[in-house]
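DM from R.C. (forwarded with permission)

"hey, sorry to bug you on a friday — could you get me a structure for this? deadline for the figure draft is monday and I only need the backbone to look sensible"
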Amino acid sequence: MKLDRKDGSSVDRYVKITERRDSRIHERSIELMTTPQTSFDPERQDTGYQGCGVKTAQNFGRWFDINYSQSHLRRHYIETTDMEKYIDLPGGDAKTFTTPAELEKGLRELLDTRFDRRYKMVRHTGASKSSTLAKIEHYLLHGFPPVALAKNGNHWVTIAGMKLVYNATDGSLSDVTFTVFDNGSEAEWSWSKLHFWFSDGKDVLAAAARLAGYTSYIQGTLIGCRYDMPQKEYDWSSGWSNAEFFSTKEGLFLFLLKEGNGTVHIHRMESNGSVGSSVAEYDWSGGWSTVKLFSTSAGLFLFLMKKRNGTVHIHRMNDNGTVGSSVAEYDWSDGWSSAEFFSTKEGLFLFLLKEGNGIVHIHRMNSNGTLGASVGKHDWSGGWSTVKLFSTKDGVFLFLLKEGNGMVHIHRMNDNGTVGSQIAGYDWTSGWGSCEFYSAGGKNLMLIHKSGGKHGLLGDADGLARLHEINDNGTVGAMVDDAYWMSRHAAMIHFSWPVLRVFSPVSGGHYLFQLRPTDGKVEIHRLTHEGLLPSCFVD
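My reply, with the result:
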């Protein structure tokens, strides 16, 4: 991997992954390397000890080829607090106490001296053991050493590697060890020795810290780093709830709508993935909750639906990206929350679902853009918040997800548009709100994000996103990438990225469009040739 500096130079770093399997176990080892043959190691020469927070920052900085003394780091980057007046900490560093907030801020400022904010610090707290292990593994695999608050909250350490041992029969984790930089020494620690959780009755330091006003001092604290270099960034007004990309003879366009007030903007997309010039603006009524574009032999059409009252409008789209004449209007019952168009050998169909009560209607679509005959109705349980139709070489499949409890059903779709047999079911954790299916590098992929509903409120504090392969038979395959898109938060409400779209400009390639309705923040990232999330790794 290449870590690019402000001055145009770069630092080369490596991640060594070793796998071993036999009939009993599957062993996986991850090690950070400064060269293909040299392991990353702690700084051992500087004996001017300034506290574990400062020493950890020094070890962390070495990975980025930032080699400051502890005294320099304490003066300019890493704050320390004298806690002796609050607590007597035998064998600890009460005079050189560093809170999680202080360390996160200091590490960010340390990187900003060299790296133009290409790397973001992410502070996690309070996760389960399995979730914490997944985070540590994630950061190591992505080439960054995570920092942990260890030993009952008394000590900061840097993690430079880990070894996981799984049971070959059922895949359960049987053992895990970490390569830990404990100040200037390096050692192998077990999960119990890491002591990531405060023991009962031994939360004295944390309680004293919080009492003294240091509210960030929470057990289960892990600080990670992620590469974050969008191709393009925009700060738009808040309230944009829908974003859809569509193509005509004249190129690729972006359709944006605010459900709250009906404002519509349509932009041309540039070949480099950036948002281009405006081609149209409209001031419609509010309440349009669903926006979809679909094609028939007669052209491209825009489908608009209001959940609150069932109003539906369908318009023809012009080649220049503007909205054309109305072709149909319908007055349905209220509550329709999802609408997805899909094609089979027998034509184009529309799948409609009410999240509240599970009612499903499926219609054939006429070539002129109007609604055709009903082909199927179902009365399912409520709560299906995400509905997606996707295709593989084996056919068309229906993906259903309940954000509230993580239940997933996948069905095969019949050529006549009806729902076929269920081919998979999963019980995931709750909170998965955004989902996008796409194909890249000869594979079908699914990007899923804990986004906190349509508007991104109450999103996952870590902003977890995962990328899975989709098997030809429609089942969810191996996870091939993941990310922690830490949500912006205020007053304990997490504002996340509920609008995710993968698009391809006319020049080719795949881009990820992320939109946060709460503040109008937009990021566009170029994906790799294989469709993976961007990283520092080079071929």
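R.C.: lifesaver. DSSP finds six helices and 36 strands in the chain.
me: no worries. The first strand starts at residue 2 and ends at 4.
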